[in-house]
Amino acid sequence: MDSESVKKAVIKQVLIESNTANARQLIEAPRTRAASAKINENCFEKCIPKPGSSVSAGEKACITNCMEKYMAAWNLVNTAYVRRIQQEVNNNSFET
């Protein structure tokens, strides 16, 4: 291998590792407390406009649906992002 080929291989490997780390971070982000708190806050504001002494069955269902929709959207975005990274790696688009 000549030095240019080695350079391209190293750059490609670094970019792959970086993108993999970014994808992993995106996937793990909803598991953090801050992300969970934000989901809860948004769904609570949407589903319980006038808090009382108890939560109704309809409000509980609304919160459950809201959180499920958020997680489905999150998974869709993550899947698309990981697929894009894989396509770029397969197409050798990281070469300079």
TrEMBL record:
Just give the chief location class. mitochondrion
User: Topology relative to the membrane, per the entry?
Assistant: Peripheral membrane protein
Q: Ranges for the Tim10-like domain?
A: 31-81
Q: Which residues form the signal peptide?
A: none
- What Gene3D superfamilies does this protein's entry cite? Mitochondrial import inner membrane translocase subunit tim13 like domains (1.10.287.810)
Cellular location(s) = Mitochondrion inner membrane
A Gene Ontology term for the protein's cellular component: mitochondrial intermembrane space chaperone complex
**Which GO MF terms does the UniProt record name?**
metal ion binding
Q: Keyword set for this entry?
A: Chaperone, Disulfide bond, Membrane, Metal-binding, Mitochondrion, Mitochondrion inner membrane, Protein transport, Translocation, Transport, Zinc
Output the InterPro entries linked to this UniProt entry. Tim10-like, Tim10-like_dom_sf
One of its GO biological process terms is: protein transport
At the top level, the lineage of the source is: Eukaryota
Job description of the protein:
Mitochondrial intermembrane chaperone that participates in the import and insertion of some multi-pass transmembrane proteins into the mitochondrial inner membrane. Also required for the transfer of beta-barrel precursors from the TOM complex to the sorting and assembly machinery (SAM complex) of the outer membrane. Acts as a chaperone-like protein that protects the hydrophobic precursors from aggregation and guide them through the mitochondrial intermembrane space.
Q: Which family does it belong to?
A: Belongs to the small Tim family.
Free-text note regarding domains: The twin CX3C motif contains 4 conserved Cys residues that form 2 disulfide bonds in the mitochondrial intermembrane space.
State how it assembles: Heterohexamer; composed of 3 copies of TIM8 and 3 copies of TIM13, named soluble 70 kDa complex. Associates with the TIM22 complex, whose core is composed of TIM22 and TIM54. Interacts with the transmembrane regions of multi-pass transmembrane proteins in transit.
- What name is this protein filed under? Mitochondrial import inner membrane translocase subunit
What is the species listed in this Swiss-Prot or TrEMBL entry? Podospora appendiculata
